[in-house]
Amino acid sequence: KYYFTIIDAPGHRDFIKNMITGTSQADCAILVIASPTGEFEAGATVGFEVLIEKEFLSYGHQFALRTGHDGAGRLGERSPVFLQFMDCVYQLSQQFPNALQFNETLLRVLVEESFACRFGTFLFDCDREREKARVKETTQSVWSFINSDIKRYTNVLYKPTTEVLVPSHNLKKIKFWEGYHFKHMPEFFDNKWTKNFLKRLA
Fold first, then answer.
1. In sequence order, which residues have a C-beta less than 8 Å from that of residue 50 and are 6 or more positions away?
2. Which positions ≥6 away from 147 have C-beta within 8 Å?
């Protein structure tokens, strides 16, 4: 026997935060968003920035709790949700190398900065806390940093498309994200044992 609750919330972000708080105990939730054509084209770099702002920041992803900023939260509450999302986007970029306007460097930088606390973008657990701490007035945005050198994060193979991307979940198609997990161990890229290990994963 199943019970379903339909919640219709106004689009204002203050109401959205209250809605998410009220449904936090749900076993499953489906979020339907109405947006103008072109606003959610996440293949473009700006579109991807908007997607992260809406899906993670405005909708209350708890960056401080999940990443352990300043020792926030219990160890058992930490979870690499944002990293997992970025890994999924990385897999998408590997299966469709021409579909995304941004490259792997952008994904890697965003994950690193979500832990580093250099920018106010990923500080605290919700917009309300960031507003209270006056983050916009006292810190720099990670988007300003990225957009100041946008060529560094541009995919030179990018070709705009209107096709729906349907990635394969076959394990042979899933790639280990070497650029992130081995970023501080460049010697691993030329290591024979590592190459054999990655072949076994594939």
1. 39, 40, 42
2. none
* Cα 71 to Cα 55: distance, rounded to the nearest angstrom: 24
pTM exceeding 0.90: no
Helices in the chain by DSSP H: which ranges? 13-22, 45-52, 63-67, 81-95, 104-116, 127-132, 135-138, 142-147, 178-181, 192-201
Supply 188's token pair: 């691993």
Tens of pLDDT along the chain (202 residues) come to 666 666 555 544 455 555 555 554 555 555 555 555 544 454 578 888 888 888 888 888 888 888 887 665 566 677 888 999 999 999 999 999 999 999 999 999 999 999 988 999 999 888 899 999 999 899 999 999 999 999 999 999 999 888 888 889 888 899 989 888 877 776 665 666 666 666 665 5
DSSP, collapsed to helix, strand or coil, labels residue 154 as: strand
3-state secondary structure of 174: coil
